[in-house]
UniProtKB/TrEMBL annotation:
SUPFAM superfamilies: NAD(P)-binding Rossmann-fold domains (SSF51735), Siroheme synthase middle domains-like (SSF75615), Tetrapyrrole methylase (SSF53790). This is Siroheme synthase. It holds the Pfam family TP_methylase. The lineage of its organism: Bacteria, Pseudomonadati, Pseudomonadota, Alphaproteobacteria, Hyphomicrobiales. The keyword Phosphoprotein does not apply. Pathway: Porphyrin-containing compound metabolism; siroheme biosynthesis; sirohydrochlorin from precorrin-2: step 1/1; Porphyrin-containing compound metabolism; siroheme biosynthesis; precorrin-2 from uroporphyrinogen III: step 1/1. Residues 174-209 form the Sirohaem synthase dimerisation domain. Belongs to the precorrin methyltransferase family. It comes from Methylobacterium iners.
Amino acid sequence: MSTPRQPRETRSAGLEPLAVLPVFVPLQGKRAVLAGSNGGAPWKVKLLAAAGAAVDVYAPEPSEELRAVPADIAAGSVTLHERQWQPADLQACAFAIGAMEDEDDCIAFVAAAREAGAIVNAVDRPHLCDVKFGAIVNRSPLVVGISTEGAAPVFGQTVRARIEGMLPRGFKTWVGAARDWRERVSERFHGFAERRAFWERFTDRAFAEPAHVPTEADLAELLGATEAAPKGGAVTLVGAGPGDAELLTLKALRALRNADVILYDDLVAPDILDYARREARTMLVGKTGHGPSCRQDDINALMVQLAKAGKQVVRLKSGDPLVFGRAGEEIEACRLAGIPVSVVPGVSAAQGAAASLGVSLTHRDAARRLQFVTGHDRKGELPEDLNWGALADPSVTTVVYMPKRTLRLLLERAVAEGLSPGTPALVTFNATRPDQAVVIGTAADLADRIEAAGLEGPAILMVGEALRLGATAIAADQASAAQSFSTALR
Ligand code: SAH
């Protein structure tokens, strides 16, 4: 049925187009110049000074607000010169801002500043700017810059407010401590993996106790804990969920960020890989229901070999790794090879589909039991040894994974074994993904409906009285959507 194939290295899709390139300009101890005194001038002078620059301001008629700036700064320095700027004023200037009302004066200033090698900004004149300012969240040395490239300033401000709320004030001291400790940590740990482990531990602590001011005692403890932690490669089986990346667990995210190598299946949604560390190797080991697959032995061997070479290996599987994922064999291969192996659970397709549909799998008026069944045996056929009595039970909800090839046979047989033909049955294609689609019917007619629908993608079958309420609601929604669609066509 399936031709074997080899694991193959894959590359992430790369960057989407960027409206602007965000870069950060160090100005500590450098000279900056602002000329003019329009409305934007005072704030810009404060920004330059806050970044540590020595700012010379040239303004023949400074506003009251601009005059007040030199007395109101916490870093850098500001000198106000009450006269028109001259080209010589721009010597050794790293950053220049034109804030004059007169366009021609501004054009001359920008030309002189560029001549002097400065980075140039002109207040309210985007066409004259080398660089533009965005909104800022300041937890220095942690600095977040936000731009909508002029498209939606209010939107940008709201994003800024959200990020403000997400970043506790205490991050300032934690990131400051990181800067102060960086060298000592690098001296203590020479390997990349250990250093990274230290900084992960450090970051976890900062997130857990943002208000705590880090001390030397914290440093000693974090260094000690990192040293004591087991070293070398390891394998983590990670559940990627059914598709929607927001269903990843925090542990899954962390494992992805930590991984040196990620071995993933075709069923893993591409978005999920975007959460990996950029430097991580990604390898498609391609186990699909029907298409060509890598041999399980090859996957096991590759996983073990990479971990033995000291790599942090993530074996990324769709849904939950322990549900119809052959995880047992992978875990055993690692244990036999003496490789530490752990599992991060994920949202299984059944849970993802049920949640998107808003159906309870165990509605207490209808279901006493929930069972997960495979529609495939090793040969891709309907398994001979399914418990048909259990499938015909009127008080069970059955979820069938890999149902596509055998769905008609399975439902026919269940009905023959006593399942009521009118039992609600539905198939969700591409659960939790943007192209999710549902086909609803009964045990008796679902197979025909699926055939007529001609849908593609991973699919999961659910059967049982517990689905009746949900199925009726979804069918009504679909009918009204179809109605408005045909109305629109008229
Ligand atoms: N470990 C996975 C199951 C792997 S078996 C889990 O817990 O979900 C592969 C089967 O899972 C597919 O044939 C299909 O039945 C189901 N499946 C996985 N992702 C799905 C999705 N997004 N929508 C519908 N079914 C899905």
